[in-house]
Amino acid sequence: MATDTPSANNIRVSASPSAAYFRAVFAVAWKDLAAELRSRELLSAMLVFSVLVLLIFYFALELDIKARMDITAGALWVTFAFAGTLGLNRSMAIEKDRGCLDGLLLAPVDRSAIYFGKTISNLAFMLVVEAIVLPLYSVMYNVNLFHPGLLGVTLLGSVGYAAVGTLLAAMSVQTRTRDVLLPILLFPVIIPVLVAAVKASSGFLTGAEMVEITPWVNILLVYDVIFIAVAFMVFDFVVEE
Amino acid sequence: MIEVRKLVKRFGLKNVLRGLDFDVQAGEFVALLGPNGAGKTTFLRILASLSRPSLGQVSVAGYKLPAQAAAVRRRLGVVSHLPLLYGDLTAEENLQFYGRMYDLQNIEARINDVLDMVGLSARRRDLVRTFSRGMQQRLAIGRAVLHDPDVMLFDEPYTGLDQDASEMLDEVLKNVAAAGRTVVMTSHDLARAEDLATRFDVLSRGVIAASASRVELENSNLLTFYKQALAG
User: Fold this and answer.
1) Measured between CA atoms, how close is A230 to chain B, in angstroms?
2) Among the four residues A89, A174, B25, B219, which has the most C-beta atoms within 10 Å?
């Protein structure tokens, strides 16, 4: 249980560093979600973009039922990836534009707490968009997407995407060309996630054997763990001048 | 309270700070003056642990930078010309957020005190984006003193404020200093600096070119002192 200790002056702070760390993580995530609930500027941009991509696929491709099943995984992950980039860019730009990134960096917590807080909120935004895009795609293309395996892959892929994307967005936001730079940095690094997510999603949708799908799911798991660990170690250096 | 020895900061091949020495005693209010590009903001960012020194020693409140940066940050409040506030959160929510980042207990009581101090209690539930620039700057000061820091750094806090807002900010700054905090403020506004500070340092070409206390300047004029420091 945390006990009181004197801080610099008469304001008291918790004595447990790990509790303080987790409180900071959730404070950052809470702040992003609360601000987005008010403005809805980030989610609305991501959603409109996603729906437009789906419509473009819908009108551009004359598809029979088999072709639809074949392209579904690719179409979905292209949509998630591009919409996710929009969200990542905006999420970090909000911090930079009003100097709030400095406000975060001035807090006396390990800076990885800021990274994890931002990653959680970016992941939440992606999952909200996916929760709307999946049923919409299902209706438009008459494809059943409510497969537990597919939902699990979507979650794992999104975790990897948010983990890498948040780190690279923190890097690119320091530059003048941040809007252009993020996709250029992100897409080469995220290719393993996209390929594994598309292959695993496609496997679940076409009813492939688990032995064919498992290696792709393992790649997603390993990628998520490695990049979360790397981000934990390097975030402090990424955000410092 | 602040001790800086032979501080050098390089950006590429350019030396912005060139062996700067600087000392501030507890409770002093130092106005750091200098022309644009003198390195005032760079220096304050180093003191705030937002930027690493290239060479030299820096300690704030007895803790060394960058090695003990977290301990320094707990004892430091920073106000810049940007508010460091979230427009889509209310004044109260902004302070709650920063209170959690500093892991403060009894946040609500402290928020009440701070909002009273900066005269924004009546607007506590309003979104910050609806605030005027002056109100945002007052709330920014509230954010910076929320954790009751020993040392306050102000980087051009009057930028963009009209006359009324500047006068209101004067009062808030006087309250901050009256609480016994050590303050370093950069400013181009010599009249305001003269009104508030107990010591005046001129930063020019990457070093402290001149330093004088209020007492030493009693029979002189700050503008003359400033011009002589830049000329010398």
Assistant:
1) 21
2) A89
